[in-house]
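step=predict obj=Ig-like domain-containing protein n=201
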Amino acid sequence: MIISYCFICVFAVLINKVSLQETVEAVIGGSVVLWCSSTEHDHKLQDIDIHWRHNGSKIVYDIVNGEDSVVLQDQRYKSRAETFPDEHLRGNFSIKLHNLTHDDAGKYICFIKHSSEQKTVHLIIKESTAEKENKSTDQGNEGEEKGADVETSTSLWVYIVVAVVLLVLACFIIFLFRGRIQCASIPSEEQRTEIEMTNQD
């Protein structure tokens, strides 16, 4: 019983982790909204602290005590990133990036401090149709390979999670069969009495 409960808990955590990741595609020169919302909806403006990071270290945007803070913002995001302040009290902390470049591709993390939540968005940047026509086929293929690598990485994580779940399930089934085999090999009271009577004769 305890093992099945543990299995359900592990499975729920793994599914939750996978569902918190999102992949978004956009084109060079365009704009994109990176979604981040809190599961808690009872927010006080002064308690809201949100930190957007790109590839783990670049400061994209901060919301401190409910106010936009761009003091420590990485130079490459100045005048290119914006939030939706009217949505903060509703738990929407999404950002919009403008004038996208290839360097904007990667992993964006939204830390929601007051509720200890973390959302991950993988941004894939593709060339617009007009730019593809102007570039050679080789350069176009390199951009597609980068996008394929990011998609492959995401798929790899899904396969790893599925493999772990299957491994836990296999261990659970083996544990159940071992318990049944051990129970079957232990003689019952009636069998013990018969064996003792046979041995006494």
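step=describe
The two ends are 43 Å apart (CA to CA).
step=end
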